[in-house]
C-alpha cells in the first residue's frame, strides 16, 4: 500500500481469496468461466491476417537521450525498448519467440518478426514483466536475456518461483502499490489492472497481473499498462501519480466484445484510458503482431486514429523510436 502526496490517493494491494486466487481491483473475479472460453473459441478466429509481413526500415534506437526525455522503440506486441536519459535501458514484456504458446509447433504465430532482433539489443538493465500470459511472459526470451545481461526483473506476486524453475532466477515480486528500485536509482511501482494471469487452466488468477509506473531519478514518469480492461482503477492510477509524460496502452485483442471486454480495451476505451491516466502522450501497443482475437489486423489502429480527437495518442511503427518528454 502506498500513499502519494499528490492528493492522498491510495493504491490498494491485491489480496488472495480463500482459494488462493487474486481478484481485480474492483473486486470482480479475474478469470471468466470455462464455458465462456469454449463459446469464444467456437466462434472462430475472424478475418484471416496476412502472413510474412516485413517491418519497414527505421534508424536504430538512439544511443543518447536528452535530459527529461526517454526513447521508446516499438519491438512489437507489448515489447518496448526504453532508454532513459542516463542510459538505463528497460525492456517491457519481451517476446522474441515465433509463437506465444506453450508449444513451438502450435498456437498464435507471428505475422511479422520482432522489429529488433534479440542479438541486436543494447545492454539491458531491467525487464518489466506485467503478468504470466504467454504473449507477455515468454520464457525463451527471458532466459536468453538473463543469460546475457542478468538484468533486474520485476513482476507480480506469484511468478518468481515459476521463473526460477525455468532458468530465470532472482525475479523481484511486487504487490499492487509496492515499488522497487531500478538500476540508475529510478523506481518502478506495480499498479493494478483489470485482467488476469495464468499459464494453464488450473492456475488461473493464482499469480498477480498489473502494470508499471516508472519514475525517473531526475524527474518525469511513464506508465507501462500491460493488459487491462476499462475501469476506475485507471483514474486512481492517474490521480495517485499526478499523471504521466507517456503511457504505453494496449489497443488490440478486443473482439468478440462480449468476452474480451472483461480483460482488454477497445481503441475507443484506450483513448478514454489516456485521459483517465492523465498521460500527455500515449503510445499504442498490443496490436498487429499475433492474431489473438477476431478483429482484422488493421482495425485497432484505424479505430484509434478515428477516436483520438485532439489527444496525443500515437501508433508507433514497428521498429520506430520516439524520443518523448516524460
Summary keywords:
single chain, 326 residues, alpha/beta, Metallo-beta-lactamase, Chain A, 7-stranded mixed beta sheet, 16 strands, 22% strand, disordered N terminus, Metallo-B-lactamas, MBL fold metallo-hydrolase, RibonucZ/Hydroxyglut_hydro
In short:
Helix content is 18%, strand content 22%. By secondary structure, the chain is an alpha/beta fold.
> How many helical stretches?
7
Count of structural domains: 1
Give the overall shape, derived from the CA principal axes: globular
Classified in CATH, the superfamily is Ribonuclease Z/Hydroxyacylglutathione hydrolase-like
CATH topology: Metallo-beta-lactamase, Chain A
What's the average pLDDT? 94
Tell me the series of helices and strands, N- to C-terminal: EEHEEEEHEHEEEEEHEHHEHEE
Q: What structural class is derived from the secondary structure elements?
A: alpha/beta
3D structure, described in words:
This protein has 326 residues and is an alpha/beta fold. The protein has a single domain (31-45, 59-325), classed as Ribonuclease Z/Hydroxyacylglutathione hydrolase-like (Metallo-beta-lactamase, Chain A). It is built from seven helices and 16 strands. The protein has helices spanning 34-42, 139-149, 160-165, 233-241, 257-260, 267-277, 299-307; strands at residues 2-3, 10-11, 69-76, 79-84, 89-92, 126-128, 152-156, 172-174, 179-181, 187-191, 211-215, 221-224, 244-250, 279-285, 312-314, 321-325. The strands form three sheets. A seven-stranded mixed β-sheet has the order 8-7-6-5-4-3-16, with no helix packed on it. Strands 9-10-11-12-13-14-15 form a seven-stranded mixed β-sheet, with helices on one face. β3 (69-76) and β4 form a beta hairpin. α4 (233-241) packs parallel to α6. It is globular. The two termini are 25 Å apart. 49% of the residues are buried.
Amino acid at each position: 500500500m502506498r500513499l502519494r502526496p499528490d492528493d492522498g490517493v491510495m493504491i490498494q494491494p491485491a489480496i488472495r481469496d480463500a482459494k488462493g486466487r487474486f481478484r481485480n481491483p474492483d473486486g470482480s473475479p479475474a478469470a471468466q468461466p470455462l464455458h465462456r472460453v469454449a463459446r469464444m473459441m467456437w466462434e472462430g478466429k475472424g478475418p484471416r491476417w496476412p502472413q510474412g509481413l516485413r517491418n519497414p526500415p527505421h534508424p536504430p534506437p538512439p544511443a543518447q537521450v536528452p535530459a527529461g526525455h526517454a526513447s521508446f522503440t516499438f519491438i512489437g506486441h507489448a515489447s518496448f525498448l526504453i532508454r532513459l536519459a542516463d542510459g538505463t535501458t528497460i525492456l517491457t514484456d519481451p517476446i522474441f519467440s515465433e509463437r506465444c504458446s506453450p508449444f513451438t509447433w502450435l498456437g498464435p504465430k507471428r505475422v511479422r518478426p520482432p522489429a529488433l532482433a534479440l542479438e541486436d539489443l543494447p545492454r539491458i538493465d531491467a525487464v518489466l514483466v506485467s503478468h504470466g500470459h504467454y504473449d507477455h511472459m515468454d520464457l525463451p526470451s527471458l532466459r536468453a536475456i538473463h543469460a546475457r545481461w542478468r538484468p533486474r526483473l520485476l513482476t507480480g506476486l506469484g511468478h518468481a518461483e515459476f521463473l526460477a524453475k525455468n532458468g530465470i532466477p532472482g525475479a523481484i515480486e511486487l504487490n499492487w502499490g509496492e515499488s522497487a528500485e531500478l538500476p540508475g536509482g529510478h523506481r518502478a511501482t506495480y499498479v493494478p489492472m483489470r485482467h488476469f494471469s495464468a499459464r494453464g487452466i488450473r492456475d488461473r488468477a493464482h499469480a498477480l497481473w498489473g502494470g508499471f509506473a516508472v519514475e525517473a531519478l531526475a524527474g518525469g514518469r511513464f506508465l507501462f499498462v500491460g493488459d487491462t480492461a476499462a475501469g476506475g482503477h485507471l483514474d486512481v492510477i492517474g490521480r495517485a501519480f499526478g499523471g504521466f509524460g507517456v503511457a504505453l496502452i494496449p489497443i488490440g485483442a478486443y473482439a468478440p466484445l462480449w468476452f474480451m471486454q472483461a480483460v482488454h480495451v477497445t481503441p475507443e476505451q484506450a483513448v478514454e484510458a489516456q485521459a483517465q491516466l492523465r498521460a500527455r502522450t500515449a503510445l499504442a501497443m498490443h496490436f498487429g503482431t499475433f492474431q489473438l482475437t477476431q478483429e482484422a489486423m488493421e482495425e485497432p489502429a484505424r479505430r484509434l486514429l478515428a477516436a483520438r480527437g485532439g489527444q496525443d495518442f500515437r501508433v508507433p511503427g514497428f521498429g520506430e523510436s520516439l524520443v518523448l518528454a516524460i
